[in-house]
Amino acid sequence: MTTPTNRRVFMLQVAVGAGALSGSHAALAQEKLSPTDSYAKTMGFNVNTKDVDGAKWKKHTNDQQCSKCQLWDGKPTDAFAACSFFGDQHTPAGGWCKNFKVKGAA
Ligand code: SF4
User: Fold this and answer.
1) Model's pTM, two decimal places?
2) Which of 59, 100, 101, 102 for mutating ligand 1's site (highest number of atoms within 8 Å of CB)?
3) 41 and 59 in a common domain
4) Rg of the chain, C-alpha, whole Å
5) Nearest to 59 by CA among 27, 99, 6, 95
6) How does pLDDT run across 18-47, given as a tens digit for each residue?
7) Distance of CA 85 to CAs 37, 45, 99, Å?
8) Among candidates 99, 81, 98, which has minimal Cα distance to 90?
9) Domain shared by 56 and 12, yes or no
10) Could you list the residue range(s) of the whole structural domain that residue 11 is in?
11) Atom of ligand 1 nearest to the CA of 72
12) Which of 22, 50, 74, 105 satisfies CB 3.0 to 4.6 Å to 78 for a cystine?
């Protein structure tokens, strides 16, 4: 049988656990996306759009970069910002991946 004290302790543990999960998500979201991440590699992610292999990624052009992508949550002056495609991990303004979608496009 659960006593009022046990219930109070349980509720405190739930609250602390939820806070820890929320904090770890925030920490993950602020991480920079690694170009060695397996999914990032699959998507052709490169920290510098000018270094993208045009022979492999035929739709790539050097004017495509994260700061011009609708999935990038930064201001034009930001060096890094969250990319919603990669779970809000941060990508550099001059980065690129094959999921590039120009801002303002449908
Ligand atoms: S989806 Fe857009 S912002 Fe994200 S890595 Fe690819 S090009 Fe950059």
Assistant:
1) 0.75
2) 100
3) yes
4) 20
5) 99
6) 444 444 455 555 799 999 999 999 999 999
7) 14, 11, 8
8) 81
9) no
10) 1-30
11) 3
12) 74
65 and 77 share a domain? yes
Pocket test for ligand 1, best of 68, 85, 89 (most atoms within 8 A of CB): 85
Which CATH number is 37's domain given? 4.10.490.10
- List the structure tokens of 90: 């941060």
91 Cβ inside 6 Å of ligand 1: yes
* 76: amino acid identity, one letter: P
Q: Which atom of ligand 1 is nearest to the CA of 100?
A: 7
The finding on whether 72 has its CB within 6 A of some atom of ligand 1 is yes
From the list 63, 65, 82, the residue with the least C-alpha distance to 73 is 82
Which of residues 14 and 58 earns the better pLDDT score? 58
Q: Kindly give, in sequence order, each residue whose CB lies less than 8 Å from that of residue 48, ignoring residues fewer than 6 positions away.
A: 92, 94, 95, 96
Relative to the CA of 84, which ligand 1 atom is closest? 4
* Most informative mutation of 45, 59, 78 for ligand 1 (most atoms within 8 A of CB): 45
